[in-house]
Amino acid sequence: MPVPRLDLSLVPRPSRVSPRPGRFVLGRDTTVRTLPGAEPAAALLRTLIGRDTRLPLHASADGRIVLALDPELEGLGDEGYGLTVSPQALLLRAAGPTGLLRGVQTIRQLLPPEALSGGVPGTDTWELPCAEISDVPAYPWRGAMLDVARHFQPVEYLHRYVDLMALHKLNTLHLHLTDDQGWRMPVDAYPRLTGVGARRARSQDGPTGPDGARFDAVPHSGSYTKEELRALVRHAASLGVEVVPEIEMPGHARAALAAYPELGNDPSRELDVWTHWGVCDTVFGVHEEVFDFCRTVLDEVMDVFPSRHIHIGGDECPTTEWERSPAARARAAAEGLPDARALHGWFLGRVGAHLVERGRVPLGWAVTGSELPLDFTVMTWHEPTHARTAVERGHRVVAAHHRATYLDYAQSGDPGEPVAQPGAPVPLRTVHDHEPAPAAWPEEQRALVLGTQAHVWTEYARTPDEIEYLSYPRLCALADRSWSGGRGDWPGFVERLRHHTARLDALGVPYRPLDARPSPAASAGTARIRP
Ligand code: ACM
Prior knowledge:
Strand content: 15-25%
Structural class: alpha/beta
Radius of gyration: 24 Å
Bound molecules: acetamide
Shape: globular
CATH class of the largest domain: Alpha Beta
Strand order of the largest sheet: 7-8-13-14-15-16-17-18
Helix content: 25-40%
């Protein structure tokens, strides 16, 4: 469908947009009428659009901007909304408060892009194009995973990351808080997790070559306070974004084992916080003390993160230590398992049951999910076919395979692309083409697909600028497709994105230019990124 007007170039594309004649003028005398239940949206409107335009947007009973909950829009679900912009009034309605928050972001995108840079001094009127919009997302899970374990990121940057996600109506920030190379969340019962596990002596520098790995000589450290994480959760909630924490087990646990070697398969061994990238064969043991640890850690995690889902990792867990360990083999036999390899699913199932008892949903990385109980939601990351296999088994799925959603992979095959994980590139179009639940699947299987998310692993992306460059504009593509579902329209997206990049410019996002030519200068120029 052709884009009717440039100023209606919204990302993600709304389900229905009908342009109307005229403009709504936002000025110093524009006030806001907030009906009961719409207060969070009014607060967000004032914060975001007030800041964008430098207008006061005072409250009044006869405000020309009207924010209202409307049960008649129930058919649009939690996140859907209706927006009517006429020359006289701007009316935003939704069945629930989250729908109104999504609508506020649409109003924001209807402003001229320069408003998003914090207003233009001396400008106190802004025009919005008139339109009738009815909007509802295709998928309830539209997210991004940020790995703060490999390279710690300042909490202020996490706030910005959420702000940019919310602009694109993405609703889930998955925080990868622990890994072999670092543990970033404090746990009162186990202070050495951050006391020891948040610092590594150096980091692998570049991919492992024929002569092995090279390292820098720079210690890397960082952890959040619980109050910082709670504030992040509150900030995200004010934007309608949920923060889903991940604590990795039983593999990717080297930082925890450096802090508490007694949780491993050889308590006498001293381990460092890992300085390599890749898959580490040091994993948790399977004795009761380990389960006490996991439960205690997750209780503290649940206390900070109210999210429905709690991610407990589960990927890339070599079983060699268990196969060698007489204690682990004895445990497998005592539990009636066929062999020590089966301890992997058994481990995750036991820990997942603890989350279920507390009213949460365990979430795990899965190749196909075959080792996980069905009350796990699984995040299929490996092959495109795995999401189908998992839904056929009856799992709920976040379908996010690496060939379409790993944003740490380069955006193109251009040798001048800034540093990225080695491997095939994931171009913008591939992200936009990714359909989490293809129309050809049976309806009951499609219904099990919650949605998709992007992944920003940070072995090679170290700084906020690098993360942002890898994220944009690919996260726009993921947002567009996961909001619009099967209605994906590549030429239309590109046309809207050409206008949307003015918004990214206004917000100072160092994105990959759409017309970047395969030359080092083209990609490094905008991005301010280490080549
Ligand atoms: C993964 O990339 N190991 C989830």
